[in-house]
Amino acid sequence: MPRGDAAQVGKEAVLRPAKWRCRGYSVGKGAWLGCDSSPPSPGGGIGARLCQESSEGAGPEPVLRRPEERLDTWAPAGPEEPQTGAAAAAEPGPMLVVEVKAGQPLVWGAEVAQTLRERLGVGGRPVGSLARGPRQNARLGLPLLLLPEEARLLAEIGAARLVTAPRTDTRQQAQAVAAYHQELESGFREQRALAEEARRRRLEDLAQHIAEGRARKQRAPREVEQGEEGGPQPPFPETAMLVQLPTACPRPTWARPLDWHQPSPDWPYAGDPRHELRYRVYKDLWERGYFLTSGGKFGGDFLVYPGDPLRFHAHFVAQCCTPGDPLPLPDLVSAGRLGTNVRKTLLLCSPLPDGSVAYTSLQWAGLP
């Protein structure tokens, strides 16, 4: 039976826990992330800090900075024993930085995205255009868009800190737009001058050839065409102007922490019953060692993978259900048949009052 398979309909699904993903990862001199017996060699890089620090190594609270392409995370140095599981997430110090804007958690650093995927089992979804292919959407890059459940999990276990940038002042935004249009006009004038200069040089090079042709044909003088030998120059249209496509968005250099316990314009999920339901299911499956992504394209809440989605196919389509709520039979049948057609098992997930989650699998089977 494949790893993570569940029982048939009518029986409680048995989800087998996977081995903890966390491994040693260098975050700078004297600070390391790990669940192994020995720390990795010191060096550059970044990573989530999941190990509990000793009291002697604690340092001052750092000043939060806006995430750049290469994030430098703060972590106090000092000897420590490696931890795993919940003990590894006990350290509340600053870790990776996740920027949240209008309810959208974003990761801008390439190394941060790599750390999340390889060390923490959080993949996210790339939503940014590539610098060498900005006008296509077949392949996307940074930033990485996280699910709200992924961002909350990282903040809750202490692997990341959620921050939000100050909102742009409308007056400053108007000034930025005016400066942009002024820059466009300046570029247009410069390109027009260069085009006129190039045309003048071209006419000078062709002047002797034109005169020889006229003398050879011995024809009557004709009117000088516009643009020849000192005539008026044709206008340089704005449609011929070269426009620079920005590949980076300037962002403020500082940000403030975001309290995900309280609802706000940047985090509207606090107190939402649907979010709480989804988060309990997501956290329980993540703690069992599964890799989860959005399951909207298959009619569910999550797609459940036994490992990295780049290496495995999803085994389950998870749907979150509140215990006691009625589940219409047509919806149940359609979800089960859809899951079977895409070779996945429908997994009904219901959080219980005692903190656990009940799983029931459903597969469409042919009648004898």
Automatic annotation (TrEMBL):
Annotated compartments: Nucleus, Nucleolus
InterPro entries found in the cross-reference section: tRNA_endonuc-like_dom_sf (IPR011856), tRNA_intron_Endo_cat-like_sf (IPR036167), tRNA_intron_Endonuc_cat-like (IPR006677), tRNA_splic (IPR006676), TSEN34_N (IPR059049)
Assigned keywords, A-Z: Lyase, mRNA processing, Nucleus, tRNA processing
Entry's Gene Ontology cellular component terms: nucleolus
Start and end residues of each stretch annotated as Disordered: 32-90, 210-237
EC number in record: 4.6.1.16
A Pfam family matched in the record: tRNA_int_endo
SUPFAM superfamilies hit by this protein: tRNA-intron endonuclease catalytic domain-like
Catalytic activity from the UniProt record: pretRNA = a 3'-half-tRNA molecule with a 5'-OH end + a 5'-half-tRNA molecule with a 2',3'-cyclic phosphate end + an intron with a 2',3'-cyclic phosphate and a 5'-hydroxyl terminus
Keyword Protein biosynthesis: no
GO MF annotation terms: nucleic acid binding; tRNA-intron lyase activity
Enzyme class: lyase
Endoplasmic reticulum recorded as keyword: no
Biased composition (Basic and acidic residues): 63-72, 210-225
Record's subunit section: tRNA splicing endonuclease is a heterotetramer composed of TSEN2, TSEN15, TSEN34/LENG5 and TSEN54. tRNA splicing endonuclease complex also contains proteins of the pre-mRNA 3'-end processing machinery such as CLP1, CPSF1, CPSF4 and CSTF2.
Protein family: Belongs to the tRNA-intron endonuclease family.
PANTHER family the UniProt entry points to: TRNA-SPLICING ENDONUCLEASE SUBUNIT SEN34, TRNA-SPLICING ENDONUCLEASE SUBUNIT SEN34-RELATED
Name this polypeptide is given: tRNA-splicing endonuclease subunit SEN34
Organism: Monodelphis domestica (Gray short-tailed opossum)
